[in-house]
Amino acid sequence: MPSYTAPTKDMQFVLHDVLNITAAGIPGYDELEADFTSAILEEAGKISAGVLQPLNVVGDTEGCVLENGVVRTPTGFKDAFEKVKEGGWNGLDMPEEFGGQNMPQVMGTAVGEMFSAANQAFTMYQGLTHGAASAILAHGTDAQKATYLPNMVSLDWTGTMNLTEPHCGTDLGMMRTKAEPQGDGSYAITGQKIFISAGEHDMADNIIHLVLAKIPGGPDGIKGVSLFIVPKFLVNEDGSLGARNGVACGKIEEKMGIHGNSTCVMNYDAATGWLLGEEHKGMRAMFTMMNEARLGVGMQGLAQAEVAYQNALDYAKDRLQGRDVTGVKNPDGPADPLIVHPDIRRSLMDQKSFAEGARAFLLWGATMIDAAHRAKDADADGLVSLLTPVIKGFLTDEGYDMTVRAQQVYGGHGYIEEWGMSQYTRDARIAMIYEGANGVQALDLVGRKLAQDGGKHVMAFFDLVKGFIKENAGDEEFDAQYLEPLKAASKDLQAAGMYFMQNGMKNPNNALAGSYDFMHLFGHVCLGLMWAKMGLAAKRSLADGTGDATFYETKLMTGRYYMARRLPATAMHLARIQSGAEPVMGLEAANF
Amino acid sequence: MPSYTAPTKDMQFVLHDVLNITAAGIPGYDELEADFTSAILEEAGKISAGVLQPLNVVGDTEGCVLENGVVRTPTGFKDAFEKVKEGGWNGLDMPEEFGGQNMPQVMGTAVGEMFSAANQAFTMYQGLTHGAASAILAHGTDAQKATYLPNMVSLDWTGTMNLTEPHCGTDLGMMRTKAEPQGDGSYAITGQKIFISAGEHDMADNIIHLVLAKIPGGPDGIKGVSLFIVPKFLVNEDGSLGARNGVACGKIEEKMGIHGNSTCVMNYDAATGWLLGEEHKGMRAMFTMMNEARLGVGMQGLAQAEVAYQNALDYAKDRLQGRDVTGVKNPDGPADPLIVHPDIRRSLMDQKSFAEGARAFLLWGATMIDAAHRAKDADADGLVSLLTPVIKGFLTDEGYDMTVRAQQVYGGHGYIEEWGMSQYTRDARIAMIYEGANGVQALDLVGRKLAQDGGKHVMAFFDLVKGFIKENAGDEEFDAQYLEPLKAASKDLQAAGMYFMQNGMKNPNNALAGSYDFMHLFGHVCLGLMWAKMGLAAKRSLADGTGDATFYETKLMTGRYYMARRLPATAMHLARIQSGAEPVMGLEAANF
């Protein structure tokens, strides 16, 4: 049976030693002293490890069951949900006026990683509620906020996002769900939505569906899409629950993983809904929350990698198999532990260096979202918009690969469900797909974000890397181990961008054919930058003689691994990109 | 529901245009004229697509059930097994004296790819029987051969391989199963074996278990392991079935995939067994069949990639989503098919260029095994021994990754079991683990095979590549697109080998820490060589004006993709390798 320990020390290191959040000048950050964040993270770690994690395998094994229109969640989910409610975890970064604690998103992200690592399928019920509440917060009228937010912040009611239909997922302009005005300010919503996570379940009194639909007579395609609030139970004037609305779960999908979450086909049959935001501006309303939502999915990639790594590490230390070729390490045992073997070590170091680098990247991303929201910092907003597809695409691709590596450490036992490692792989797989499949992230990055605001944000990123290297150069060892690899990787990224500029104009496919490689190249440079920052922080602390020297030395070793063993991928991605569109597009579709 | 079409034309191209098998001078190959091989492949394709493939999802959904000691296979498996028996498919490459058709292994490999692609879990019942029969053929007494082989070749009886125990998989020296002589030439086998594929089922009259066990008083560790034949039902003198033996299935494992195959815990309780081969030489007997068995697993990697690709391609042509940025391709429809998008094309080309390259690599490997067995060609034997871990490790890693890519093409539908793409990923995952986990393959390659016979075989490989490039240079376009990338990749491989030689002596971890990267580097060079050979064959046919020009042009395009987009991975692997042991091993195990 797998276990999970919340990486609070690592999180504290990133928050305080690396990001130095209390000095960041972002409103609300001054309160985030180390003792305070430590207390929150310890509490979150306790509920993650003690309450959510033990239900992870249960959720996978039992799944959700639809009977007579009611969805039964796995044994124990309802009690655990009550505990999450009692702890007020969903309101951590929500406004106080709606019952939240108004903390910055960087804290919500750190806590979210723990919850997701402990039980991704379970945490999605809360995560979707948080997302839907954020959309109402950003676009709702005062009355809508007053009606829905307190109940959603408290988790008495949960929320969903309804975008996909059977014939369209990415291309939502083809949507068929319609919303007909009923003359009283409400609309009658009719259509079928699929892949609706947490669409129906038995853990909340009401479910608030946010539904994209077209108002007849509006513009064609994506410009005619509006967003609606469609509660499962209508809400009376006094806030009590009224009649059941015309929305029902038609089916629960059988999926590869996240069995504990009910993925529903939702049928809307003249269900009463209310416009959220403006008519025909539904996509814009949905996209307001996109950076946050996609960061949340990238976080899931990290979370599954982290928990899978922890278990692979335990197994590698426990399982005796073979002998260290450089000399027996466990002479009293029948064999040495797996961890003595260099190829097992390679796999563990891949996982460890990814998880720690990804955590820094995510938390840095969250600070930029906070800066954008709380300090109206347009530069931070631009930079995090640029990096969002990288966070989502790179961290979920790599996160998945790391769960596969962790599973591999278990040998044959990794393939047997009883050991729990297969679940991490199966659960992690979804994050590469939902909230915009990773190919769409790459398209967003190269097709939209790179050139946004005249390329200002990508230039800012390059300046940031260059500035960091310049400021911190001078220590021969650190230069060689950290700054030079980062500089080389960053040059590859610039060369790739240059290739797109020079060749994308004459044929956009020269850029698009390299988009996926560019997303990964960018991801490696970001993790390289994070490791350089973490290495620097560790070096400083060692020089100061403060804190746990072994912890900092371990950081330096882990970072060196990333620099030496993972960053060389950038040159490969660049070579692929520079081969241009022709090898990719040369073959006629008919001749495949 | 997924579909499968056997790639007979591609196989014929490799067998005849590329490998030119009838001129290979290997006994039995002279009969393999194009018409003859085509007839076999067409028949195998029919049973694969028509009988085995429709049962693939059934097997996944129903799985195997153990009740009162009896294992029930999924609906339809028994009938399909009868059809495979009737067709004589298991005896294709078995000797005529035992009821086989005595064809070379290259034909068994081509047919095996089809069967595995159509239904991997089902085909394993036959594959393990084939493997066990091969071991009896190589090491059995005449009496053992006469007793077991005709029934195993015909599939009236099936076979299994019993190596793993709960506490040891790779490190079989720790084995506890014991074999006590009973004074009559037989042994009493007692112990527990796990992960026994096809260990118990309802499709055959008898099951012949090959079991590794230790005879008390023998040498310690791996040198004290012997191999035994342990039939489920004892066989009477007259060949009829006698008493039930003391072997029983204790449990069927719940696995990530290959649900249609019964993976059993097998309990041996003083079961009667007979020594196969010599006392204490069990590992050697097992290893005789290793090249063949590992090639068979590599083949599974290709097979799952091929069938997943075929379905991803169909979906990419059918599913309408978004518009081609360079101009609308389907003006009468609501959107263009997915295949117009460069990133979808990248994914499909990755899959296609892998599958076709892997097929050539596998069939080439099979010709070397044939040359070794049929022509006693020691050089071929040495080269295929060197390449076996590459075939197994690289093709299953890449094969798995390709199923993940194929699944991704389906977007959200790829995650829903109903669409069948998740099964390819889940089924393909096992091939990276069994028959020696891929990390063990890398260790075998770098720790044993590279230096075997004084490094003679790896030198032969380099000479082969060099010779090929030299012989075929001169066409400017072909040189630039094919030979130069191959040369560069091959140089990276040589540099990696050189690094190991120069640094592995002072610290073997300098080699072992790079073993996994070396295996992948080697795999890319092999596929590069295969593509250069296929490109050359296509170019010749185009120049001759014979055959289907579009087919050959497509081959050239696909090969160019591999060269331009996949081969650049070699430089990355080299860089990782050259960073040596220190980044991998520097961190103390206790500090992870």
UniProtKB/TrEMBL annotation, chains A, B:
Top-rank taxon, per record: Bacteria
The record, for SUPFAM superfamilies, names: Acyl-CoA dehydrogenase C-terminal domain-like, Acyl-CoA dehydrogenase NM domain-like
What is the catalytic activity of this protein?
Answer: 3-(methylsulfanyl)propanoyl-CoA + oxidized [electron-transfer flavoprotein] + H(+) = 3-(methylsulfanyl)acryloyl-CoA + reduced [electron-transfer flavoprotein]
The record ties this protein, via Gene3D superfamilies, to:
Acyl-CoA dehydrogenase/oxidase, N-terminal domain, Butyryl-CoA Dehydrogenase, subunit A, domain 2, Butyryl-CoA Dehydrogenase, subunit A, domain 3
Record-listed E.C. numbers: 1.3.99.41
A family per Pfam: Acyl-CoA_dh_M
Sorted keywords for this record are:
FAD, Flavoprotein, Oxidoreductase
PANTHER family for this protein:
ACYL-COA DEHYDROGENASE (PTHR42803), BROAD-SPECIFICITY LINEAR ACYL-COA DEHYDROGENASE FADE5 (PTHR42803:SF1)
Q: What is this protein called?
A: 3-methylmercaptopropionyl-CoA dehydrogenase
Source organism per UniProt:
Candidatus Rhodobacter oscarellae
Q: What is the lineage of its organism?
A: Bacteria, Pseudomonadati, Pseudomonadota, Alphaproteobacteria, Rhodobacterales
